[in-house]
């Protein structure tokens, strides 16, 4: 591990101060949850506020600050990355930046634009990879480049999927792959390393970290990986506070960690199955050895990150089984087949789960102890992207379009 002296001051902003924004993958702190009222349950294309064509394709999710949407796309034939700022009210493109890259082999279900950006009041952070490079790019809200980093070769069988997060004045980015792995905390104003945590290499992890607050009110960054299990890092100096260890998982971690009821859930899996959930109880002091509470091996998701509502966990697995789980013991309260397949992560809006299938069907069901399917809505094109909710609107991304549905509140 290498440590760098701070070159700026932390701004001690509460984690959820900007919860009304949708600033990163799966929303505020990765919870995928919004209290927004009036988002429709049923709709047709005639109900869209606007729908716009995007240059190229991609699976990343939109993020928002104020009325500005930031999203990524890629032209796979020309190996071009596009980063866009779109007016959330009208769908008009405010600016578009293009970066030339190199073609490389990825999984047939992946995209060159699968990493979701992250945004704060002044900056928007994009990430993209090739076999030879792993880029982190910072632009301001006007599209001016502030800094760029390349963390070196990115060796995976499937391509990229790592999404950065912002913690106060730091950008947190896991450079996790088959090669020399690390977690970087870089200054958001200058892109310089604040700390670097060396990590063992194993099956690459694509989960996005989140912030956990201990019983003593101390904040920790939570990561999941095949090489270290579920682990916590001090965000100020990059020191590992606790970890469940390399025997926790035996496959890659794609699903992001889920916080619920004093436990942290992590999941590993593969396209061939064998997925399972591990629930750990962090050490009371915030430092030490966590306790593994239980494992769940039935209908565990591999790609879609789960959501929590009213103390219950809702999973939608890749093969279309939705379930409601009691986080106290990991037991299923109900399980239902949705007759669809999923890569998109479900979100909860005003007590309802919105789940986007791979074919572009948005299924809506109640986030409750009894399963009740409310609607099935067609987007007309495939979608692997997780929705966003902000400004009273629902934003949905298909392979080539961005759609806005206005709430009725």
Describe this structure in words.
Among the domains are: 19-48 and 55-199, Lipocalin (Beta Barrel); 208-297, Thrombin, subunit H (Beta Barrel). Helix content is 0%, strand content 43%. It has strands spanning 2-3, 33-34, 50-53, 63-65, 68-75, 80-87, 93-100, 118-119, 123-129, 134-140, 145-150, 165-167, 170-175, 181-187, 193-199, 210-213, 219-225, 229-233, 240-243, 258-260, 263-268, 276-281, 291-296, 307-309, 312-316, 321-325, 332-337, 347-349, 352-356, 361-366, 373-378, 388-390, 393-397, 401-406. A hairpin with a 5-residue loop joins β13 and β14. It starts with a strand and ends with a strand. Mean pLDDT is 92; it is low at 1-19.
Q: Share of helix among residues?
A: under 10%
Using the CA coordinates, give the radius of gyration.
20 Å
Helical element count?
Answer: 0
Report the sheet with the most strands, covering strand number, pairing sense and barrel closure. 5 strands, antiparallel
Briefly note the structural class of the backbone.
Answer: mainly beta
Q: Provide the CATH top-level class of the domain at 19-48 and 55-199.
A: Mainly Beta
Please state roughly what percent of the residues sit in beta strands, choosing from under 5%, 5-15%, 15-25%, 25-35%, 35-45% or over 45%.
Answer: 35-45%
Q: Under CATH, the topology of the domain at 19-48 and 55-199 is which?
A: Lipocalin
Low-confidence stretches: 1-19
Would you report the number of β strands?
34
Classify the oligomer: single chain
Mean pLDDT: 92
Strand order of the largest sheet: 1-15-14-13-12
CATH architecture of the domain at 19-48 and 55-199: Beta Barrel
Shape field = globular
Note the gap between the termini.
Answer: 50 Å
